Amino acid sequence: xxxxxxxxxxxxxxxxxxxxxxxxxxxxxxxxxxxxxxxxxxxxxxxxxxxxxxxxxxxxxxxxxxxxxxxxxxxxxxxxxxxxxxxxxxxxxxxxxxxxxxxxxxxxxxxxxxxxxxxxxxxxxxxxxxxxxxxxxxxxxxxxxxxxxxxxxxxxxxxxxxxxxxxxxxxxxxxxxxxxxxxxxxxxxxxxxxxxxxxxxxxxxxxxxxxxxxxxxxxxxxxxxxxxxxxxxxxxxxxxxxxxxxxxxxxxxxxxxxxxxxxxxxxxxxxxxxxxxxxxxxxxxxxxxxxxxxxxxxxxxxxxxxxxxxxxxxxxxxxxxxxxxxxxxxxxxxxxxxxx
Length: 340
Hints:
Strand content: 25-35%
CATH class of the largest domain: Alpha Beta
CATH topology of the largest domain: FAD/NAD(P)-binding domain
Oligomer: single chain
Structural class: alpha/beta
Radius of gyration: 28 Å
């Protein structure tokens, strides 16, 4: 095992690459292991990102990789499939073979969107089937929007969509019954409420066309909002002994605000710990985690330097021959009283 790094970052999205840039700028040896499966790959653009509004996700990541590499980070296209402790370090196993060793592991592994099991949802996901009004709402403003109720967040999601369009329909598919207050608000805002099981979303290669219910009713729509279950990609964390935390919307890796987990020398940034983080927030989290990691390593390096200095001093003292007692000197020291 010859590949050794200060930090191995698993995940080459916004959080992982921002961390790699920050660590590289602090002269840390960094490896980013990236499987090449960004969560936002289906999206046409990344939004709410100051200075890069609407940038295609793959273009943004390519620029991030170049920036990280310009500061000495290594970006490797591979999948991290295992993690274990070995002595005072961490070892990450790669799918294409071989292991790499790290002093610190940063998990920027993101999350998996577990979509409702309705035909058409996955096929149009990230285009005109969406979940975040801040990421995709502007693009469907003023259009016919359906909201597929699969969780107790559906009424809130319908209200958010109603801000963007006068034509919103909430399909009470499999979510819980509406509270009286929720129903009153939706009705007051002219949100249509449709009871019944959604059988499928009709679409063609270019666009979503309609929501079709099991009883045959059909409702023409231009976009549908859904609420996936957000599941943190936490296999490595669990292999190292960590336990994921439950959230009303899914699971996540618990951490301090800066990304420190309960496991020594294991940090996390991005959607794996913050289910709501958008691209800009994930990048910020990567920078903060990197700063915390570098701070820890700086102190560890300083403590190691103190130990080495002490060991050299002890070794030199042990190797020094005992001075003769002649001349009133003991171990090379003059007697009290000076030169006399």
